[in-house]
Design a protein that fits this description.
- There is one protein chain.
- 55% of the residues lie in helices and 25% in strands.
- The chain is α+β, with helices and mostly antiparallel strands.
- The protein folds into two domains: 79 residues; 97 residues, Beta Barrel (OB fold (Dihydrolipoamide Acetyltransferase, E2P)), CATH 2.40.50.
- It has a five-stranded antiparallel beta sheet with strand order 3-2-1-4-5, with no helix packed on it.
């Protein structure tokens, strides 16, 4: 009897364990099926996302290609315009140099015109002087300039001039007299003292001569080369 009871208990235990295993297997199978469904769903979603991303990537690649083509065209356009600007700048520099040369030439022409006018005026005045019977020495040097000052002091009579034309450029003083007893004095067809205002333009002829000056420190007389006017007129 005890043996039978023991066998019955063992059978019930084994049956209970088997039933429990079946339930566990069933639960696991259900979970596996659920995971498979989720996997299929996720795979489908991921596949759709990959297709969408691939499509967008292709569109972006196409747009990028178009943008690159546009950039290349614009780069070529910029290069062409840059070359055009360089060419125009070079041409502009040439034109500026031509304009500068023309202005210089114009300035030179004005200077030549002024010189010709002075020469013509001088010739006319020279004719007037010669008609008055004034003799001009052969070694006389013509000059043009601006009268800075005129001075008479202690027997000396001289003109300070700013010569702007002729061989006397660099010389500043013409001596009519160099003292009370001037052995080198020559006749000058010059206007009265202070009859020409300072700053006036004058012209005339001068000769190279000698001038004697007394050294006030020891009373000795020294001579030096100088220029004396033989004719002086105001324009």
């Amino acid at each position: 009897m005890k043996v039978l009871l023991l066998l019955l208990t063992l059978h019930l235990s084994i049956s209970s364990i088997a039933q429990s295993k079946k339930e566990q297997i069933s639960i696991l199978n259900f979970r596996i099926d659920s995971l498979k469904e989720e996997y299929v769903k996720d795979t489908t979603v991921l596949s759709n996302d990959v297709l969408k991303i691939t499509k967008e990537n292709n569109m972006l690649s196409e747009q990028l290609g178009k943008v690159k083509d546009q950039l290349k065209k614009k780069s070529n356009t910029i290069t062409d315009k840059s070359n055009t600007i360089k060419s125009l700048n070079a041409k502009n520099m040439e034109l500026m140099q031509d304009l500068k040369d023309m202005r210089t030439e114009k300035k030179n022409l004005f200077a030549q015109q002024k010189a010709l006018k002075l020469n013509l005026d001088s010739l006319q005045r020279l004719n007037d002087i010669m008609e008055q019977g004034v003799m001009i020495p052969e070694n006389a040097i013509p000059f043009h300039g601006i009268l800075q000052s005129e001075s008479q002091y202690d027997g000396t009579w001289n003109y300070e001039l700013n010569f702007d034309k002729g061989h006397l450029m660099g010389v500043s003083t013409l001596y009519v007299k160099s003292g009370f007893e001037d052995e080198y004095e020559i006749n000058c067809s010059c206007p009265e003292y202070e009859s020409i205002p300072e700053g006036a333009r004058v012209f005339g002829f001068a000769v190279q001569s000698r001038c004697a000056f007394e050294d006030v420190s020891d009373g000795t007389v020294r001579t030096k080369e100088c220029y004396r006017p033989v004719i002086l007129r105001k324009y």
